[in-house]
């Protein structure tokens, strides 16, 4: 007998288990909505394939042989295992479970992302999320290699082998020491920052790094001096508090109080933030995350326009 396909094998097992339950091919056929002859023929095929009789036939119905009793236990385990496996896979497809790896910038731990992941957790709390903190260029490289499922970054520039989905915008702020010559200014503009020293990370001025905040500073001109520091983004704020210079930050960062620092908005200056992802990535949890991100972005925009 030719080896049956998985779907046929499962049907044979289903016929066998139903016949064993009802003790009759006729009753099994009625329960399954198929002809008695189909039940009898498929079970005979199964017996031929196994090389053993599973049922004793008699006028009143059928009863399991010793081999049939042993096979019944295995068949029930096989069907249960297949059904459980199918449910596990379906749950992943519905993003009820699974795993997702998401890149974020240190300054994006509040604001939009906080709202996004609260919403995601409400709908897909069974999905485990691995957060990876890093800079935009590194996230983009990881997305292209499928090392990350998605990343949320400042800016909307294109990256090789990445899809870029602009989602939300934030006001730009200047972080300054609480005692500073600009202390009396509630709102700043670029000319007011002329000849000021603004702290940036080492290498952030390189366009290849994709640091959208630093690139905005460079585009602004006005004699703003960039002071590169060999520290992480989060360490820039303590340096500002120490009076070593100013820093350009996003609205999300500016919403978090920091001792010794005052945040002031830059008039008319906003920055777009985007999701990076790969069209080659078929992780359902990632697709659901992007869908929720778009909904959250639309909701925020509607509230802003009211």
Automatic annotation (TrEMBL):
DNA-binding recorded as keyword: yes
Entry-linked InterPro entries: LysR_HTH_N, LysR_subst-bd, WH-like_DNA-bd_sf, WH_DNA-bd_sf
Occurrences of domain HTH lysR-type (ranges): 8-65
One Gene Ontology molecular-function label: DNA-binding transcription factor activity
Top-rank taxon: Bacteria
UniProt record similarity statement: Belongs to the LysR transcriptional regulatory family.
Function per UniProt: Transcriptional regulator of the ttuABCDE tartrate utilization operon.
Name this protein carries in UniProt: HTH-type transcriptional regulator TtuA
Record organism: Xaviernesmea rhizosphaerae
């Amino acid at each position: 007998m030719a080896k049956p396909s998985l779907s046929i094998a499962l049907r044979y097992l289903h016929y066998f288990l139903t016949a064993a339950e009802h003790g009759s091919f006729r009753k099994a056929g009625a329960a399954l909505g198929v002809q008695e002859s189909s039940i009898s023929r498929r079970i005979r095929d199964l017996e031929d394939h196994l090389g053993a009789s599973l049922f004793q036939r008699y006028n009143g119905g059928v009863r399991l042989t010793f081999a049939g009793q042993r096979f019944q236990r295995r068949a029930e385990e096989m069907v249960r295992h297949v059904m459980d496996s199918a449910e596990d896979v379906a749950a992943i497809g519905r993003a009820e479970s699974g795993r997702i790896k998401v890149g974020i910038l240190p300054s994006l731990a509040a604001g939009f992302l906080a709202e996004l992941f609260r919403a995601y957790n409400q709908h897909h709390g069974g999905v485990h999320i691995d957060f990876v903190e890093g800079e935009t260029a590194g996230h983009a490289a990881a997305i292209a290699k499928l090392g990350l499922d998605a990343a949320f970054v400042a800016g909307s520039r294109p990256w090789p082998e990445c899809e870029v989905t602009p989602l939300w915008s934030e006001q730009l702020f200047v972080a300054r020491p609480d005692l500073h010559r600009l202390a009396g200014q509630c709102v700043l503009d670029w000319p007011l920052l002329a000849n000021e020293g603004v702290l940036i990370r080492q290498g952030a001025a390189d366009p290849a790094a994709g640091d959208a905040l630093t690139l905005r500073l460079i585009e602004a001109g006005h004699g703003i001096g960039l002071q590169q520091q060999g520290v992480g983004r989060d360490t820039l704020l303590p340096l500002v508090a120490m009076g070593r210079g100013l820093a350009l930050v996003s609205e999300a960062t500016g919403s978090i109080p920091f001792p010794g620092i005052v945040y002031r908005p830059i008039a008319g200056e906003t920055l777009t933030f985007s999701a990076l992802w790969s069209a080659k990535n078929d992780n359902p949890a990632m697709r659901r995350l992007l869908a929720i991100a778009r909904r959250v972005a639309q909701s925020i925009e509607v509230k802003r326009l009211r």
